[in-house]
Amino acid sequence: MKPKIYSTYSIPVQVKDYMAQYCDIREWHGDGRTPRDILLEEIADVEGLYTGGSSMVGRIDEELLNHAPHLKVISNVSVGYNNFDVDAMTKRNVIGTNTPYVLDETVADLAFALILSTARRITELDRFVKEGSWKPTTNYREIYGKDVHSTTLGIIGMGRIGEAIARRAKFGFNMDVLYFNRNRKQAAEEKYGAEYCDLTSLLTRSDYIVLMTPLTPETFQIIGKEEFKLMKKSAVFINISRGQTVDEQALIHALQNGEIHGAGLDVFEKEPVDPTNPLLQMSNVVTVPHIGSATARTEAAMAMRAAENLVAVLTGKEPIDPVGK
Ligand code: DGY
What we know:
- This protein is of the alpha/beta class.
- The protein has 2 domains: about 5-100 and about 295-315, NAD(P)-binding Rossmann-like Domain (Rossmann fold, 3-Layer(aba) Sandwich); about 105-285, Rossmann fold.
- The protein has helices at about 15-20, 35-40, 60-65, 85-90, 105-120, 120-130, 160-175, 185-190, 200-205, 225-230, 250-255, 295-315; strands spanning about 5, 25, 50, 75, 95, 150-155, 175-180, 195, 210, 235-240, 260-265, 285.
- A 7-stranded parallel sheet has the order 8-7-6-9-10-11-12, sandwiched between helices. The protein has a 5-stranded parallel sheet with strand order 2-1-3-4-5.
- The longest helix has 19 residues, at about 295-315.
- The two termini are about 35 Å apart.
- The mean pLDDT is about 95.
- The chain binds (2R)-2,3-dihydroxypropanoic acid.
- (2R)-2,3-dihydroxypropanoic acid binds near residues 79, 80, 290, 292 and 293.
């Protein structure tokens, strides 16, 4: 008998065909992801869980693990795995996996999409044109943006995605690249001339700041009131990591009080973001709904990688992308 697995969303067909050779699949066919209460019932007999971080699914924690006594592997279809309680999983010998590498370039593209659209006021001016405000009398000085090329970019978190951003910055936009990271990244320094600096120095010197660090206890609200105060008044702040790496109230305060110029946000403290969140009312803030890796090609590659990880564990092999401490 094949091991049973549950997926919190409907798996792309090709990926499902591959997985079906090795396991019996049950999946959620409703909107979004499986709601938590249903998930807790569905996992009672499964050995594998195929999922991703989402507010509907909730955390992979003691409560969830208590409902899944046969679980061997949880395969996250995402690179971030802050939704895992790794300690609780380790205690029960449940292996967690993620999907690195395959999304690096796509997320780096989004970093630049947010940099450019915030700097050049693309979403604001798109509305301006579409609502008929562009007139022969339009005062262009009022719609000037900021240059991106030949400025300084600060990257907080120089992992693989950070490096892909640095490459675009250096060769596409002739930017000087500063970075802050747990450890020095020789390759980024040699290839992109990236300069390693402490956080204070990065924040004070950068024109654009991209936060790209995983969410861990060390990076929780790594950017808060004091950090925004250090930034240039002309600085643009981009977050494509996780909402909790920023003190969102401090970000709102910094934007409302002109401490920084603008922000581009893919992630929020609470997702989906509350429609009354003041960030959504600000014309100098560009927002997207956590779409870092959301292109058809990359999502398909992530789905397949997650499937390979899951199948590896269920067939007694080492997964390609185990996560842990
Ligand atoms: C991930 O995979 O963790 C990212 O949030 C993708 O957007």
